[in-house]
Amino acid sequence: MEEKKNTRRRIASGERVGITDLVEDLINELMKSDRDNLLGDSLNLRANGFYKSFLKLMLGDLNLKIPRIRSGSNFRPAILPPHWE
Description:
Helices cover 33% and strands 25% of the residues. It is an alpha+beta fold.
């Protein structure tokens, strides 16, 4: 299955997007930024890709890409609810 285009590109091309797409992109970008800030502060930590997860909300299901860090760190994006996996 083909990955969907970045929401900003979809908007720029004139495609209509829903609030769910915007919220999904915002949360994914915030989590990636959170990881990048942590990595920028440490010489020993490295990024280790993403894992996919779903978050069900009243406005729709979000397909999240949760960033990972190589072993040795208990990184968890600050925006995620405390008891959510």
